[in-house]
Amino acid sequence: EEKVHILTKIGPDFAGNTLLEFYRRAGASTSLVLTDETARTSMAVLPVFKNGKRGCFVNLACNDGFTADELLGQLDHGVESIAS
């Protein structure tokens, strides 16, 4: 059985906990999710207004500090855990 593995970085907040719960309920593996105890979970809000126009509001939060070393380290960890 193939499984989806989520690789992301979240904060220890309501948004991060909600995402983790959503992924788990969907049957995805969250073993590669990093939690940054010093940052909030990144958020994007994309409203559609009554006149049909759209907006985009983004708070990068955790994404601002998601380094290439962290990403590659998690990928290495993921390959090892999936292979075993």
Keywords:
3 helices, 12% strand, 84 residues, 4 strands, two-stranded antiparallel sheet, two-stranded parallel sheet, alpha+beta
Structural class comes to alpha+beta
Outline:
globular
Q: Strand percentage, roughly? A: 5-15%
What integer is the average pLDDT?
90
Q: Helix count?
A: 3
Number of strands: 4
Looking across the biggest beta sheet, what order are the strands in?
A: 1-2
Give the CA-CA distance, first to last residue. Answer: 14 Å
Taking pLDDT < 50 over at least 5 consecutive residues as the criterion, the unreliable ranges are none
List SSEs in N-to-C order: EHEEEHH
Fraction of residues in helix? 25-40%
Task: Round the Cα radius of gyration to an integer and report it.
Answer: 15 Å
Largest sheet: 2 strands, parallel
Describe this structure in words.
- The chain is an alpha+beta fold and 84 residues long.
- It is 38% helix and 12% strand.
- The chain has 3 helices and 4 strands.
- It has helices at 14-25, 61-64, 68-83; strands at residues 9-10, 34-35, 43-45, 57-59.
- It has a two-stranded parallel sheet.
- The longest helix is centred in the last third of the chain and has 16 residues, at 68-83.
